[in-house]
Amino acid sequence: MYQRYHLHTSSAPEIAPFPNRTVVKVKKPGLAVHLIQELIRYRGNRAVALSRPCLYGVFSGPVGGFAPRSDSCVACLRCTIEYPGMVEVRLNPKHLSLGDSYFTPGHVDTVCYEARTGRVPVKGAGYRGRFGGEGWDGMWTDMSEIVRPTRDGIHGREFISTSVDIGQKPPFLCIDGQGLVTGESARGFSLPIPFLLDVPPSSVQSPKLLRVLVDAAQNAETLAVLPITLVRQFKLEGRIVPLVGPDDAGLLEGLGFAPSMIELEGWNETLFRELQKRFSESAVCLREDFISPEELLERYRSGVRLFHLAADYHGLGQDGRFVLELIQEAHAAFLQAGCRDEVTLLGSGGIIAAEHVPKAIICGLDAVALDTSLLAALQARFLGECRDRRTSRFQLPRRLSVNWGTQRIENLLASWRDQLLEVLGAMGLREVRRLRGEIGRAMFEKVLEREAFAGIEGYDGKS
Amino acid sequence: MTEKADERLIIKKHTRSLHRGFELWPEAGKSHLPAMGDYRWTSDLILSTWLQAETGEPPGNGLEYRVGNSGGGFDVLDFKFLPQDHWFPHDLSPDLSIPLNRRPDGARIGIPVPFYGAGMSFGSISEQVMLARAKTAQAWKTFTSTGEGGYPESLHAYKKHVITQVATGMFGVREETIRDARIVEFKYAQGAKPGLGGHLLGDKVTTAVASMRESVPWISLFSPFPFHSVYSVEDHKKHLDWIKTINPEALLAVKVSTPIDIDMVAVGSYYAGANIINLDGSYGGTGAAPEIAKKNIAMPIEFAIPRVHRYLSQEGIRNEVTVMASGGIRTAYDIAKAIALGADGAILGTAELVSMGCTRCGNCERGRGCPFGLTTTDPELSQLVETDWGAERLDNLYQSFTLQLRNILRWLGLASIRDLVGRTDLLVYRGPRQDGGSAG
Description:
The complex is a heterodimer of chains A (463) and B (440).
Chain A lengths: L21 E5 L1 H14 L4 H4 L28 H5 L4 E5 L1 H4 L8 H13 L4 E2 L15 E3 L22 E5 L5 E2 L5 E2 L4 E5 L3 E3 L9 H14 L3 E4 H6 L6 E5 L16 E5 L3 H10 L4 E7 L3 H9 L4 E5 L12 H14 L7 E5 L7 H8 L3 E4 L1 H6 L3 E2 L11 E2 L6 H26 L14 E3 H9 L10
Parallel strand pairs in A: 9-16, 10-11, 11-12, 12-13, 13-14, 14-15, 15-16
Antiparallel strand pairs in A: 1-2, 4-19, 5-8, 6-7, 17-18
Chain B lengths: L2 H26 L14 H13 L21 E3 L18 E2 L10 E2 L3 E3 L9 H13 L4 E2 L16 E5 L8 H6 L2 E5 L10 E3 L6 H7 L7 E3 L9 H14 L4 E6 L5 H11 L3 E5 L8 E2 H6 L4 H14 L7 E5 L5 H10 L3 E4 L1 H6 L31 H26 L14 E3 L11
Parallel strand pairs in B: 4-14, 5-6, 6-7, 7-10, 10-11, 11-13, 13-14
Antiparallel strand pairs in B: 1-15, 2-3, 8-9
């Protein structure tokens, strides 16, 4: 029977203190004098004299404005506008210290909201950020003025598919006289969402976190990439992609389950062939940094059909270029070689917001592996700049529980999937597979600006 | 004292404090409001808009009232003014009027200023705010738009200056409101949420709103996307013809967002019979929209205008259609830059709300709605904005904007705003600020 893919969301409030964006300070002596004046002016009418300028409960405590509840502040500023000499609303330094230079406090806020509620962030008023910028911010997705995936408009989102195919596909099928497929056949599987859960950094590989990732992958019907050493050490099973290197590939022997995919870290042709042979039912994926187009095609010629290209946590490749450009380059390399449909490109690094997913797919990925966003969802603290898996330091909340963590990840995935549906719906696309490499559905700031501002004095087209 | 009387006193008390605050803060300067503003609407822009709404003049106290800090679009463009000794004299008043119908047939409707008010529905804003906008539109002989939410009875007095909007939910669309309108606007999409339709959250669907929209109180309302009867230019023409059947005198406006093929969309709209094409850029305002849509879908207005202007010119039809830009027009300088990039005029939405006290806090959709009484239908909160007070603020804002627009024209040596259309040679690219700018 047909079953629609569904991610179960439920409220999962923060378990560690989460600093509000603003803090509210009240000058208490001034407030006391003001209240007396108000009581006199309104002849002791307490309802009027004590009425507060906040709809959100900042002054709703037993002593009202004398102990403002900053956590309820939504930064509307009505209180400070009404009472300039008495109330001050400031940006909270604790909030400003969330995340790091790439994963900004704004990103942490958004991810935490998504993980807490499972909802799409909706707000009033228009866009409030920079016009464009480097990286993902310099890219817009297109929309279609009239063409829709279904005649149900926004309600037709349920019928947009977010399934992706992972693995290798032959360029064509050979069929014999009896109609049976001969020769190479497709070797892979489908995931209902284009997200995998990537291997956590070394500093937080606790059994509890691993269990959260495994359970979340199970519930979301996706995959969690985990080091084989830990999979064996903690006897983990389920929708796991064992990550192996030359030194620990032997641990795959005696694994308690048959993985649908194995990731080989770093290119080792002998080991790759051995894995392909020994695990004929599994898709073997090569995990590497973003390598040059020539190297990618070389790996292809060596038989690799499934790649996981990893940038650092800030989205930079080894040569310092941003992942947006690197993905396009990798996609184009296979496209020009006429074999793009035979390979699957997974990518990770720098994908920290819902909008980065459709953008990465438009640039050429089939699916993405989520890394630091999962940790942010679990309220992990970034200890300094977090750039890569080996050196980054994160601190998970002490009260982390498996159930809570699993729900937070599921909520995050549900929210990101819904936002992917919004983008696909706006474009009039019925399935995410059709979005891959659809660069015509992207608009880049540099290109649009050149077109719009060419000829304007002072514009050299290079900004 | 009764509860009702207390409520009146409470509203009066807070209204008075707010009005005092709107007056005081622009003088105090931004350093005292560290949590105000963002890259697009800096605290300087918000405070200077309040000041203009108070005085009817651009600020003279150092507040930056012309550009924001977004690092792109209008914020990196400036005008190439003539040397001062070449400026037009002060007693010469450049013409700001624009025609809204540039086709050879149909009603000759024009406006004396190159801007009118954007569609904001009853439900997304209060009736008081709606009336303040209509009153100002009437005083300035320009227009404001109903948005998709119907036509409160009180608005009928201003019907000559109210555009009736028809959108996919058809909320509040009635034969008489189409018959009464001098301009009927088809909303295909909204820049802040292109391709996603409209959404009025249940909390805002009060009994009055539900009655106007012929729906059920407290139940969320969706305007689906797109028009399910429009899948081609021919279908689009059929829609416009339908309006023409009801009101043959009406001018037809088409509001679209800014996809990559916006040039084709504009041409299609022209051939379907539109008099006005409203390009609604992606950085415009909204009562509620998914955050992902605001930044990431469709292009900013600064890029859409020249594309459309160029294409319509190449097709030889630019002189037969009025192009109005909206979605991110914050200041008089934005209006002038939009026109220099190729629009005929601009449409103001958020700027009008800011003039009446909006801080851009983004809580329009939350609970009872706007804490300043603007984007709310809460019977108590909406009383924070009195219609006459709002109209006076808007009137002052318009006054300041026209003053600035006339100065811009004088300093460029142009006698009419119509001479500025598409004059990118009068613009200069300044580039992003070297320090990167800051939010607020």
